[in-house]
C-alpha cells in the first residue's frame, strides 16, 4: 500500500535531473501537468499529477475518495514495469534512488521511499526534549521524536525554509557565474 507523504512543495529542484525526467517520461504521464522532481543527496522523488476520475456531482465524499484510491492503485500497477525501467536508468545516471508518487487534486501519495539514518550529536537539554516526547507517547523512540520535530519545523516554517532554499539557489547560481576556480 502506498505511503502517504507531504513532500515539501518548496524543496530545491535539481534542474538537470528534473529536465531529464521531463524529457524521459511518456507524454501520457505528464498530460495533466509537469512532474514535480525533488532531489537530495540520496534520493529523487518524482511526483506525477494525474486527473481525478469523472464522477457524478451527487457522489458522496467516501465514494469520491474510493474512486481516487482506485485511480492511484490502477496507475501504480499499470505503469510499474515502465517506472522501474526509468528509475533504473536514472539511478545509474544520477547515483540516487528514485521514488515515485502521484498527485490527484490535494491528495498526494508517495510510493516506497527511503528513510535515511542521520547521525546527530545532542547535548542534554536537546535529549531531554526528545525524551519528553517519548515519555508522553508522542514518539516511540528518540529517533521518532527527532523526525517528529523536523516535520513540525517543516510544517510551521514553510515560508522561512522556502526563503532559505531560494538563497541557497542564488548562491549556487552566483558561484556558477563566477570565475573558474584554480586547480588544486
How would you characterize the overall build of this protein?
The chain is an alpha+beta fold. It folds into two domains: 1-115, no CATH class; 117-184, no CATH class. It is built from six helices and five strands; from the N terminus they run E-H-E-E-H-H-E-E-H-H-H. The protein is globular, with a radius of gyration of 20 Å. Residues 1-13 have low confidence and may be disordered.
H and E order: EHEEHHEEHHH
What gyration radius follows from the Cα positions, in whole Å?
20 Å
Question: How much strand content do the residues show?
Answer: 5-15%
The major sheet is characterized as: 5 strands, mixed
Count of structural domains:
2
| Total DSSP E strands | 5
Mean pLDDT metric = 86
Structural class: alpha+beta
Which strand order do you get reading across the main beta sheet?
1-5-4-3-2
Helix content estimate? 40-55%
What spatial form do the alpha-carbon principal axes imply? globular
Number of helices: 6
Measured distance between first and last alpha carbons: 50 Å
Low-confidence stretches: 1-13
How would you summarize this macromolecular structure in one to three sentences?
By secondary structure, this protein is an alpha+beta fold.
Amino acid at each position: 500500500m502506498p505511503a502517504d507523504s507531504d513532500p515539501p512543495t518548496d524543496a530545491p529542484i535539481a534542474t538537470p535531473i528534473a529536465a531529464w525526467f521531463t524529457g524521459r517520461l511518456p507524454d501520457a504521464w505528464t498530460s495533466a501537468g509537469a512532474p514535480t522532481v525533488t532531489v537530495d543527496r540520496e534520493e529523487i522523488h518524482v511526483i506525477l499529477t494525474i486527473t481525478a476520475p469523472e464522477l457524478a456531482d451527487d457522489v458522496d465524499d467516501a465514494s469520491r475518495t474510493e474512486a481516487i484510491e482506485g485511480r492511484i492503485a490502477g496507475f501504480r500497477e499499470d505503469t510499474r514495469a515502465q517506472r522501474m525501467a526509468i528509475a533504473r536508468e536514472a539511478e545509474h545516471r544520477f547515483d540516487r534512488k528514485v521514488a515515485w508518487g502521484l498527485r490527484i487534486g490535494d491528495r498526494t501519495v508517495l510510493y516506497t521511499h527511503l528513510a535515511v539514518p542521520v547521525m546527530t550529536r545532542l547535548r542534554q537539554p536537546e535529549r531531554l526534549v526528545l525524551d519528553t516526547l517519548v515519555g508522553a507517547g508522542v514518539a516511540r523512540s528518540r529517533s521518532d521524536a527527532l523526525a517528529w520535530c523536523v516535520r513540525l519545523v517543516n510544517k510551521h516554517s514553510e515560508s522561512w525554509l522556502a526563503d532559505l532554499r531560494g538563497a541557497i539557489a542564488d548562491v549556487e547560481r552566483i558561484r556558477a557565474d563566477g570565475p573558474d576556480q584554480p586547480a588544486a
